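Thread: "does anyone have the structure for this chain?"

Original post by V.I.:
We have the sequence but no experimental structure in hand. Need at least a predicted one for the grant figures.
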Amino acid sequence: MSILKYSFRLLSFLIPTLLVTNYILNHYYSGQSSVLDTGWFTYLLTQSTSLPVANPLKGLLDDSYFTTHLSLFYYPLSLLYSLVETFISPQLYFALFMGSLYGMIALAVFLAGEQFVSDKWTLMILFIMATLTPLNGVALGTIGFPHIEIAIPALLLLSVALYFRGNRYGSYFVVIALLMIREDAGFHLFGLFITLIVFYYFISKELKSLPKDLLYMALFSLLFSIVVIAIQKIFFAGDNALERIYLGQPHFAHLSFDFIQDRVEFFFYNRSYLYLPMFLLIPLAFWNRNPFLVVPLISTLPWLLLSSIAIVAMPHSLSNYYAFPFITLLAWPIFAFLINSSLTNSRPAKVSKIFITIASTTLLSTALFIGTVGHVDNTPWRDFGWEYLKKKESIQSAIREVIDHKELFGETLYDEAMSSFMVERLGKDEYGYLNDYFQPQKDKAKSIIFFASSLSDIEPLFKEKSFPYTYRVVKSDILIASEYRLEEYSDAFVRIPLPQSH
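Reply from O.Q.:
Generated one for you, tokens below.
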């Protein structure tokens, strides 16, 4: 049994890690990644050696990343990358890091549920459910727009699993890692832990038997985030993300009856994978006589309310990574059973009830995600395979050719997918967010370099410019439209007819 258990632990981590790693590499090498996210974070994870952390794209972004988020975890990860860079590309390193976060969620679920299973069949069911947990609706919605914020629920769940399994020092270490993710990470931990403590008080009517370090971790995390945010505002003032994304300027001026009605209607029709499992936690708590099941429902309400008034479309529709706190909620049931068993010394719940509860939240959420809209990628499971292996070498070779001959192209515009490979080499006038370029950029451009997958976005631009020459970088999906005859300088640029989108 123990060998099987350890095997399932390893596999529960490896399978989601592999799926998400493949997904991100498929996006990189098929031309579906974006510079301000995939390329940006790849750079930060591998090149953060200065204090403060320096941004690429000088002139487009603030010089320091700390003006947006005060994240310290980039330093140890960049140090680690310096030890492995001879055989791991930056793209693979980023993909592995992001994949490991989803693997961490599955591992935490499996660790939390181990004590409730007693034979190999229930252990296998637990393994299946743990492996599927990182594929709940919210987690699936985040994959197409990979952001480091996913580390917050991943580490939060792992810290809970370790703590209530008795590995408190391991839990403390994970909490410290969690606080390094960004300045507000402590608020997320505090919200969950303090809600858990309040529920425990109402159950027990006293706090003497509560493990004091649980309260200390909550208060320390709250204080840590307050201090870090104060440091950020004093020493790294610049980007006010709260105002830019949520409050607007003037604050709340964008709010109206129509605005709220539109948000509610969109949420009702397109986020059932979130709100149905969320509200099901209430009857499930009564059915299981386990009030800890609704802890994350309460602790995530502030994020839900803040998102509902956001001026930017992505957060107010809870699309992509902006819904990351709800990953904790959808993965929560097994942790609620572990906490109840640990704190109240009650009899372990029946395995059948545990599995039904998990299926009513996590698995229901996965099923309801099918057919959703509003994410960068609404069908991420299509890219969990190994397709990138066919393109990896040719794309990397083509990128090198572009970099080596950069002076031949004159003033150049790059699509987002190309930019994600060249983020530290770009000038601010060479990049357009979502392939949208300002008119002065268009007027000056002598060449456009882009992935074939961006053709529908780029086609109007090179038709407007009437570039006489179009090329394919040899053996790749990278295209060039230019005023210059590039084949005179390198046989890596193969002349092709003017491409047409379909």
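V.I.: this helps a lot. The mean pLDDT is 92.
O.Q.: and The first helix runs from residue 2 to 30.
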